[in-house]
Specification:
196 residues, alpha/beta, Rossmann fold, 7 helices, binds glycinamide ribonucleotide
Length: 196
């Protein structure tokens, strides 16, 4: 059974999809705890599923490394096999990434390397892209630059709003996240091989 700590910053719809999948006794992964960098709305999903939650806000720390050290100690208590960034909107420092690489994965709402960063959906629309999608990748010390492990594309309908397009991408992401974690848990997808 693959054990996971999920980190979020926002509404947590992907977290919810994963928690629901893990509720099936046949699913080969379990969420041990959910952390956030702010009082994220999505922590409610974790509480509904009786998961431990923790919040480590960067504001109170002298440096990003110090913040990440406390974040890591909250994760270490649970000794997870995998850390999943599901809408976690902070770049983790190299000290943190080196500690866990390649066992941190991130969900991103574009076809990387196109449109990295915090506004991927807006940037795809502004660029007039005809298609976009979602990517799951191993987290390295760059911004959305780590090895890609899964991508799914979709056409961008003419005139669609940023909000509506993001919602449609999230529908793809939820299934992709659940399937990818299942593949990692069953060793069908070996992160060590993808990252080497
Ligand atoms: C998701 O679309 C995820 O790909 C994105 O945040 C959203 C979180 O939604 N992540 C990034 O943009 C990371 N750069 P959710 O909180 O409803 O799961």
């Amino acid at each position: 059974m693959l054990s996971i700590v999920v980190l979020i910053s926002g509404t947590g719809s992907n977290l919810k999809a994963l928690l629901e999948a893990c509720d099936n006794p046949l699913y080969p992964a379990k969420v041990l705890a959910v952390g956030a960098d702010r009082a994220a709305e999505g922590l409610e999903h974790a509480e509904l599923f009786d998961k431990t939650t923790f919040v480590v806000q960067p504001g109170g720390f002298a440096s990003k490394d110090e913040w990440a050290e406390v974040l890591a100690s909250n994760i270490e208590i649970h000794q997870p096999d995998l850390i999943v960034l599901a809408g976690f909107m902070r770049v983790l420092p190299k000290s943190f990434v080196d500690r866990y690489y390649p066992r941190i994965i991130n969900l991103h709402p574009s076809l990387l390397p196109k449109f990295p960063g915090a506004h991927a959906v807006r940037d795809a629309l502004a660029a007039g892209a005809g298609e976009t999608g979602s990517t799951i990748h191993i987290v390295d010390a760059g911004v959305d630059t780590g090895p890609v492990i899964s991508q799914q594309s979709m056409a961008i309908p003419a005139g669609i709003s940023e909000h509506e397009l993001h919602e449609r991408i999230k529908e793809i992401e939820k299934q992709q996240l659940v399937k990818t974690i299942e593949a990692i848990a069953s060793d069908e997808l070996k992160l060590e091989e993808v990252s080497s």
